[in-house]
Amino acid sequence: MSTAFIGLGAMGYPMARHLAAQEDTLVWNRTFARAEAHEAEYGSEARPLTELAQADIIFSCLPTSTEVWEVLRALDGYLMPDTVWVDCTSGHPAEAPRQAAWLKERGVAWLDAPVSGGVAGAEAGTLTVMVGGDAAALERVRPRLAFAGKTVHVGGVGAGFAVKAVNNTLLAVNLWAAGEGLAALKAAGVDLSAALDVINASSGRSNATENLIGQRVLTREFPATFALGLLAKDVGIGLDLVATHKGSAPLLGQTAGLYRAAERMVGAAEDHTAALKLIEQMNDVELT
Ligand code: NDP
């Protein structure tokens, strides 16, 4: 019995470390030097992609469902029956049933299992995992989710991706709204640290005001642990979900447009909190 991990990015690298501490873990990364570094650092085994099909649980953590399709197709003919594929990508709920059906034809079970908690949560092994798919497959996998602090079965195939998209859309709304509010306070001459001190003891608080803005924006550090382009992608998925069900969500629509603009004007590879630099330009203030 061994596990496999595909995609050693900002999240995958520390997630796979917890797996390797618990059991034999095969790893692959497109830039293969990163897999070799993981082997040297954490005792995992860097292998060609096709060899990862030997594992009975295969994890993937890639930017979007498109890259997951690429690795699935590259593994066609190598996958073995009774494997469980656990996709920790923040993927698209419309792709999950297609990917699950494709895998089922090859005898492989599917779980969409995106995570939240950021790079810090991945390093600490305390990620929240939201799982869509077959409950029995999850029970097989659950003891081996070494990077998880909390695991919740949220429904059938695709439900994990849907919950993740809505969670991150809420993050985007809260972050943007806090940025606009703080820009107004800055223009009014209010000290922003004092303002955050009050907001965080009051009803306007959120993770954005309690953690992100104080640690990343006011310090001007904007450490790139979660790319702005990935958050814009997540908000787009949230909006697709609304459209699929013919919902009405004008606030989410505006949020998607704002993050697409920020991605272009500030830069997709910047940290997601750097979206507030666009609000700074719009208001001719600096959030310091
Ligand atoms: P990164 O950009 O840091 O890593 C992306 C990984 O995907 C790298 O290993 C990269 O390989 C690989 N990759 C990219 N394109 C391809 C491809 N065409 N074929 C094969 N491999 C590819 O992303 P994150 O780790 O930050 O994010 C991964 C997922 O997790 C995303 O869906 C994101 O939304 C989600 N997420 C991110 C969080 C965060 O805080 N960063 C928090 C929670 C979820 P290479 O090294 O060669 O570039």
TrEMBL record:
A GO term for molecular function: NAD binding
Keywords: NAD, Oxidoreductase
Pfam families: NAD_binding_11 (PF14833), NAD_binding_2 (PF03446)
Listed InterPro entries: 3-OH-isobutyrate_DH-rel_CS, 6-PGluconate_DH-like_C_sf, 6PGD_dom2, 6PGDH_NADP-bd, HIBADH-like_NADP-bd, HIBADH-related, NAD(P)-bd_dom_sf
Domain 3-hydroxyisobutyrate dehydrogenase-like NAD-binding: 158-279
Domain of life assignment: Bacteria
Record PROSITE patterns: 3_HYDROXYISOBUT_DH (PS00895)
Catalytic residues (UniProt): 164
Signal sequence segment: none
GO BP: organic acid catabolic process
Every 6-phosphogluconate dehydrogenase NADP-binding domain range: 4-154
UniProt keyword Magnesium present: no
Coiled coil: none
PANTHER family referenced in this protein's UniProt entry, alphabetically: 3-HYDROXYISOBUTYRATE DEHYDROGENASE-LIKE 1, MITOCHONDRIAL-RELATED
Entry's family note: Belongs to the HIBADH-related family.
Protein name per the record: NAD(P)-dependent oxidoreductase
Provenance organism: Deinococcus radiophilus
